[in-house]
Structure formats: structure tokens, C-alpha cells
Amino acid sequence: MAKHKVVSRRAGLTVPVLLSVAGVLLTPVPATAQCSNKEQIFWADEPGYSWRLNAFGSMNDIRFVKRDTEDCSTTTGWSTAHIKGGGVWGDWVEVGWRIKTTCTSYACADDYQWFSEWGTDFDSDGGDHGQYPCNEVEGDFHRWRVSNKPDTNDWTLSVNCLTGSGYDQLDVATNTGHHKGTPTGETGRRGGTGTGISDRHRNLKWKDSGEAWNDWVDPTCRDDNASNWQGVRDSATEYHTEHGSADC
Amino acid sequence: MGGASLRGAAGAALAFGAAVLLNVSCTRPADQAQEGGPVPDWDEPLVNGVEVSGVDEARSSLAFEPRLPAELGSPARLLMTDPDSVGPASRVFAAIYDHSSYGRFWVIERVSEMTQAEPRSWTKCDPAIGCEGARTLITVGDSIEAILREGPNATAVVWLVGDLRFDVVGPADTLAAKEAVEVANLVASSTPTESEP
């Protein structure tokens, strides 16, 4: 398996053609199901015995990392600062980075991008994306922030590359139906067990109704459907993912 | 996985040439618009949900009177936000149904955080800015304005009554829009007093 794929050979409908024309050997084509298999690990602040529901923002320093990906023309990985709105799973606002894998006739390439997304009842109402806004140096942390605009259900979505230049506002999520919710960190992938879902979030903070940013009290993993990876709590304000079979 | 799947530089060159000459397209599944949104778990509507035995038990902890129409029969499960996690005004009530005709769907009720103008704005669903599916302005019950949401993951009807918000939500592949609207009509026409299933 190639590490940190930039370009890899791929197959698909091309395979039989190429086999007949070139007579070359190809490894098995990835199953279509793998490309649409969406796996996620969610962490949220749990100050007591349940997740916090009164956050007006979430701030996550997320480590930039290159991941092993599958030959799938789709979003094959992501990590975000995330708010679950109003105590239901289906409503959300998030901003972070993603891996957009694009496959041409003969090769696949991974592009690291920022993206935003918000939605209601599990379907997206809006979002945007663009070139990764910070230097793509593995191991560097970049600060992603979802912050409610006071007295509205709109949220500003920003990044701070932690290079001294402050925040860049990337997008505004409008008419989300909520002004508070659960501060969350999310990591995800498509492509199955042969791919990576490496992630680390630290300096985790939530915004209260008075616009003050406070440290998380206790990060807790509650929703992990990622096979062969699991989440690990490092401290009150940090967690990471690693290989393992545990469900959170 | 991310490794090379075609062995050898010569093979690669041949394959590239063949692909160019034949202009063959390597088709993959359509790109998903949704990146990091939640994967629906149709057993779990609420973030901090706890089971309740009936509407009466939930009623004592909520800031509103839940309503579930008798015509829908008994829900498979009733949930509400854990009372230890938040005050009454922020608690959500959810009924999970396994209906003989409509299959699995939820009825979610809560104090709304939005005005009527906000769900109305959802009808401007523009795929160019990431909106998935279709949003349609409809009426349910006694001429109550509602939004029908048809997306790749869910079919939903959302409406407000006073300061309360109602969502009827089900899997897109099993709950048709017509069925979701029928359920929404039943819920919107019901009253709190008839709600004990």
C-alpha cells in the first residue's frame, strides 16, 4: 500500500479495456461499496454524564496529516470542528478539512481542501470548499472555529493557521435552525479498512452564551462506526485516533 | 487502498496510452455532496436521549405538551433529552415508529429556536452552494405552513406551531414524500389531549 498517495494507478470500467489492450496485471478493483462506506468517529464535550447541549461555538486545533486513501472519486477523508444543533443528531454545522480524491482514466490524486457544511434532518442545506488555507505541513495544527452570530441562527466558519495572522472567515452558515448545540470533533473517511483515519484534536474549547471560550471538561467518544480505528482520550482538551477495534 | 494497482512502469505507459487513445472514462460512484454530516442511525434521534415509558412521563419533564396521533398506533420507542443534561425548554421529545404502512420514521417535537421565515428560506435549495435534494413549501393540518425536505438521506416535513417545532423524519429509501406528508398531517391535526399512546 502506498503511503500518502498523491497519484496512484486505478481501475474501473477501464480495467477490461486496458487488460485487453495492454495485457498488464492489475490488482483487484476496489469494491464500489467501499467507496460509499462512510465511517466516522465523533467526540463531544461531556461535562457530566451526557454531552453538552448549550454551546454557541466549537474551537478545535486539528493536526494536518496525510492519510492513505482509496481509489475512489469522492471525499475520502475529513476532520472538522462541529456543532450538533439543538440536541438532535440530524442537525449540524461544521468546518474543517477534507481529502478530495479525483480519479481520471489512469490515475487518482488527493487534494486537501477546507470545507464547510450545514444541514437539517441529515441532509445538507449548504456548504462550500476551497484550497487548503494553511501550509500543508504534516504535524502542524490549525485552529478551526464554528461560532454562532449572536441573536441569530447563523454561524461564522473560520480558520486560524496559527502563524500570527489571526482568523480567516471561510463561510457563514445561515438559517440553520439553531443557535446552540453540542461542541463536537469529527473525523471520517470513505474507502474501507485499508485506508487511514488518523486524526488529533487539541485545545478544545466551547463558546458560552456570553461569548466566552471555555475549555472542554471531558472529551467523550460516543459515535464510532469506523472499523479497525478507535478514539483515544489524551486529556480534558485533547483526543486522537489510532488503530484498534474498540467502539470508542 | 492507496497503493499502486497497476504493476510496472511499462504497463503504466501502455495503460496511459490506451486510455488516451480510447478516451475511456473510469466511472466511479457519483460524488457525494455530503462530506462530514452525520450518518443517520435510525435508532437514535437524540444526542442525549433517554427512554421514557409513555407520554405522561415525558410530559412532566418537558416545557410543552407532546402530541402523538392515535391513528399512528403505538410508537416502538419514546425518547426525550436526558433531564440531567439541560433545562426543560431545551429538552426534545422523540417518538420512533415502526409503522405497518410507513415503516420506520420519527416524530420529533421541541421548543423551536427559529421563526417561520427560517424554514421558508430552505426552499431556496441551491445545489451550487451545497444544498442536497429538494425543499417544497406545503401545508399540513389546518393550513399550517410546512417544508417538505427530500434529500439523499432523509425525507422530512418540518413545521412550527407557536413556539414549537415539529419534524417528521424517515429514511429516504423507505419513507416517500407522500407518506411523510400523510404522517405530518396526522401529527399536525392532533391535539395534546389525545396524545397518550
What would your notes on this structure say?
- The complex is a heterodimer of chains A (248) and B (197).
- With 248 residues, chain A is mostly beta strands.
- Helices cover 6% and strands 51% of the residues of chain A.
- Chain B has 197 residues and is α+β, with helices and mostly antiparallel strands.
- Chain B has an eight-stranded antiparallel sheet with strand order 1-2-3-4-8-7-6-5.
- Chains A and B meet through α1, α2, β2, β4 and β5 of A and α1, α3, β7 and β8 of B.
Structure summarized in a few sentences:
Chain A is 6% helix and 51% strand. Chain A is mainly β and 248 residues long.
Keywords:
heterodimer; A: about 250 residues; mainly beta; 8-stranded antiparallel β-sheet; 2 helices; 16 strands; about 50% strand; disordered N terminus; B: about 200 residues; alpha+beta; about 20% helix; globular
Please mark out the parts of chain A with pLDDT under 50 across 5 or more consecutive residues, or reply none.
1-29
If you compute it from the alpha carbons, what radius of gyration of chain A comes out, rounded to the nearest whole angstrom?
19 Å
How large is the count of helical segments of chain B? 4
**Mean pLDDT across residues of chain B:** 84
| Major sheet of chain A | 8 strands, antiparallel
What structural class do the secondary elements of chain A suggest?
Answer: mainly beta
Please give the most extensive interface between any two protein chains, plus how many residues each contributes. Answer: A-B, 94 and 75 residues
Which radius of gyration of chain B do the C-alpha atoms yield? 22 Å
Mean pLDDT of chain A: 88
Residue share in helix of chain B: 10-25%
Structure summary, number of beta strands of chain A: 16
Number of helices of chain A: 2
What ranges of chain B have pLDDT less than 50 throughout 5 or more consecutive residues?
1-33
Count of β-strands of chain B:
8
Fraction of helical residues of chain A: under 10%
* H/E element sequence of chain B: HEHEEEHEEEEH
CA-CA gap between termini of chain B:
51 Å
Characterize the quaternary organization of these chains. heterodimer
